[in-house]
Amino acid sequence: MDAEPTLAYISLGSNLGDRAGNLLLAVRGLIEADLVVHRLSTIYETEPIDMDTDLKFLNMVAEVQIGAATPTQLMARLLRIEYLLDRGEKAGGPKQPRTIDLDVIFIGQQKIDTEFLIVPHPRMHLRKFVLRPLAELIPNFVHPILKTEVVELLAASEDTSAVHRWSPNLRAKGETAA
Q: Would you call 25 exposed, middle or buried from its count of C-beta atoms within 10 A (0-12, 13-18, 19+)?
């Protein structure tokens, strides 16, 4: 009998250029990197947190099957996608607008703490822009360190930043989705 496939959850964000197009290109990059994309969350428009910009992000979460890739190989593939999509940190460092930002949130129930990768993502439970789309996909998933379900982490979040469901139709009219 084959082992259960390892599922990983990747947070995708963009606040520079064609934000929705950047997310689409990143999802395509996941597929081209031999990751099987199972599901995608809704896209949310969110306020930037701890950044030197007011440009709003579009954020979502992808559920991917990583196949035979190790966690380090997964992270290397994500960094390559960011590089190919010109992440945008060259000029001003990590707190600047970016075309794409990809973060590993969970890899199954694994706990990883290396110089290259920390899983679960160490700040995911503090960020509604990660928790809201993650709760759509895996509301009852138990955080392997905090021992709390994702939906409970969202409910308990002290993050007061705006996170709204994004619609290209409403955005075109200058409105925000509720």
A: middle
Active site residue 101: yes
Active-site choice (103, 127, 132, 159): 103
- Our answer to whether residue 87 is catalytic in this structure is yes
Summarised one tens digit per residue, pLDDT across range 109-141 is 999 999 999 999 999 999 999 999 999 999 999
Neighbours of 69 (CB within 10 A): 19
**Predicted TM-score of the model (pTM):** 0.90
- Annotated active-site residue in 2, 18, 77, 98: 98
Q: Show the domains of the chain with their CATH numbers.
A: 7-172 (3.30.70.560)
Question: Of 34, 52, 77, 101, which is the active-site residue?
Answer: 101
Distance linking the first and last C-alpha atoms of the chain: 46
103 catalytic residue (yes or no): yes
As separate numbers, helices (DSSP H) first and strands (DSSP E) second, the chain gives 5, 8
